[in-house]
């Protein structure tokens, strides 16, 4: 399992970096100037679902693009587009499937709920001091697919997995607020490290008979800008 996860992360990062290189070759310094920064964002999500009976948080890789517009020395706006923004939780309580024979095998399974999402956070950024900023704003998520992955040990450790599609339990659109902090390495054109928290404003569950469920996500990222704003400013 761990080896497969590492290989998957490597492939995703490689593809994202390849895309960055291609864009940089075509557009170069035109993507970044003294008012606008455009770059690649890569990081990790630590996600849980409020009011869902679980034992822990899930972890996944987020990948997206970052756009930063500077109004002045204090105020900026930072929309991001994540085409990979994993949600969910681990340690979901075991439940019966539609296969009675399989249920006996899955009694001792562990379940991880995985929700794939496309995400658009739009944060207003305020400079506290030097290169440290506060981020806050709305976030819009499109939940593309939800599944439960059962893992159980039969002959060897974690040698059997079973996947159950639970997409029909969740709404497609999730809206909430994101808050966080950003630390730039240098004022213009440098790497930015961000740490944010997201919480749903409305229930994501379709079931009106059960407690409302909300996404709760800590996510971290590194934004690598394209081009060189300092060259553009000098020119």
Describe this structure in words.
It contains 3 helices and 10 strands. β1 (36-50) and β2 form a beta hairpin. The protein has an 8-stranded antiparallel barrel with strand order 1-2-3-5-6-8-9-10. The radius of gyration is 20 Å and the shape is elongated. The model is unreliable at 231-235 (pLDDT under 50). With 235 residues, the chain is an alpha+beta fold. It has a single domain, classed as Porin (Beta Barrel), CATH 2.40.160.20. The protein has helices spanning 2-27, 100-105, 229-234, and strands at residues 36-50, 58-70, 75-84, 87-90, 110-129, 132-152, 160-165, 173-184, 192-200, 214-225.
Content-based structural category: alpha+beta
Q: Kindly give the count of domains.
A: 1
| Total E-strand runs | 10
CA gyration radius, whole angstroms: 20 Å
How many angstroms separate the termini? Answer: 51 Å
Number of alpha- plus pi-helical segments: 3
Mean pLDDT: 85
CATH architecture: Beta Barrel
- The CATH class name reads Mainly Beta
**Share of β-strand residues:** over 45%
Give me the side-by-side strand order of the main sheet. 1-2-3-5-6-8-9-10
Q: Could you name the ranges where pLDDT drops below 50 across 5 or more consecutive residues? A: 231-235
């Amino acid at each position: 399992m761990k080896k497969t996860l590492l290989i998957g992360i490597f492939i995703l990062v490689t593809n994202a970096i390849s895309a960055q290189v291609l864009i940089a070759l075509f557009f170069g310094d035109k993507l970044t100037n003294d008012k606008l920064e455009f770059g690649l964002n890569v990081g990790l999500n630590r996600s849980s679902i409020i009011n869902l009976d679980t034992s822990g948080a899930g972890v996944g890789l987020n990948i997206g693009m970052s756009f930063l517009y500077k109004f002045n020395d204090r105020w900026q706006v930072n929309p991001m587009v994540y085409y990979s923004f994993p949600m969910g939780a681990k340690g979901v309580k075991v439940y019966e499937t539609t296969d009675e024979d399989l249920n006996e095998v899955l009694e001792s399974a562990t379940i991880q709920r995985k929700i794939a999402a496309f995400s658009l956070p739009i944060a207003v950024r305020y400079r506290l001091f030097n290169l440290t900023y506060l981020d806050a704003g709305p976030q819009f998520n499109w939940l593309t697919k939800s599944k439960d992955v059962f893992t159980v040990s039969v002959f060897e450790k974690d040698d059997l997995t079973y996947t159950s599609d639970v997409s029909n339990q969740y709404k497609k659109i999730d809206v909430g607020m994101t808050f966080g902090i950003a630390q730039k390495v240098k004022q213009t054109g440098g790497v930015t490290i961000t740490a944010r928290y997201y919480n749903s404003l409305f229930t994501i569950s379709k079931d009106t008979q059960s407690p409302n469920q909300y996404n709760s996500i800590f996510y971290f990222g590194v934004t690598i800008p394209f081009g060189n704003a300092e060259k553009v400013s000098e020119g």
